[in-house]
Amino acid sequence: HEQLCTMIRTTTFPPEYKTWMAMLAMKPGEDARELTRRRDLWIVCHGQKLIMRMLQHEYTRVADRTVPVSQAGYAPGRNAPEHVLVLRLAQEQAMLEGKMLCVGYQDMGQFFMSCVRTVQRECEDWLGVDVAVSRVVAALQHEVKGQYETEHGLTPEFDIRNGNGQGC
């Protein structure tokens, strides 16, 4: 714990924290040859996950103050049945009123790795995330390298300039 706190205070991290490994997880029932259908899981060093858990309180504080009540994802005591019920009620109301109801769905696949870090920092600043917390996360993400795990071993390292790893 002391070592993690020192890393957070100094924003100095071991080289292992700078390599993220991607595992391409298959979805149930999918063809193993369809790589585009796989879910990329970007695994970060366990110590980095611990640091993110230590910093999570600040992000939770900001989210509790700024996320609209219509967003139920990951909110305690709220889940998919709530959204299904609201959709059913909206459909029923549209039918009774004889009006059209248009529903759109957005696939957030590969969302975390598509986060643009400069935009992430601006959003954090605008929403009031403690600057010291944003600084630590930026240091964890600075000069990160990635590798894919394959049947034939690891790929060569490559730069990761955008995105957040699992647990970030």
Compact overview of the structure:
By secondary structure, this protein is an alpha+beta fold.
Task: Summarize the SSE layout with pairings.
Elements: H1 2-10, E1 19-25, E2 39-43, H2 46-66, H3 80-97, H4 117-127, H5 131-141, E3 145-150, E4 153-154, E5 158-159
Parallel strand pairs: 1-3
Antiparallel strand pairs: 1-2, 3-4, 3-5
Supply Rg: 20 Å
**Assembly status:** single chain
Number of strands: 5
- Percentage of residues in helical conformation: 40-55%
**From N to C, what is the helix and strand string?**
HEEHHHHEEE
Q: Hey, roughly how much beta strand do the residues contain?
A: 5-15%
What is the structural class? Answer: alpha+beta
Mass-distribution shape: globular
Helix count from the secondary structure assignment: 5
Largest sheet: 5 strands, mixed
Low-confidence stretches: none
Task: State the end-to-end CA separation.
Answer: 19 Å
Q: Average pLDDT across residues?
A: 89
Describe the structure.
It is globular, with a radius of gyration of 20 Å. It has 168 residues and is α+β, with helices and mostly antiparallel strands. β3 (145-150) and β4 form a beta hairpin. Strands 1, 2, 3, 4 and 5 form a five-stranded mixed sheet that branches. 42% of the residues lie in helices and 13% in strands.
Task: List the defining traits of the structure above.
168 residues, alpha+beta, five-stranded mixed beta sheet, globular
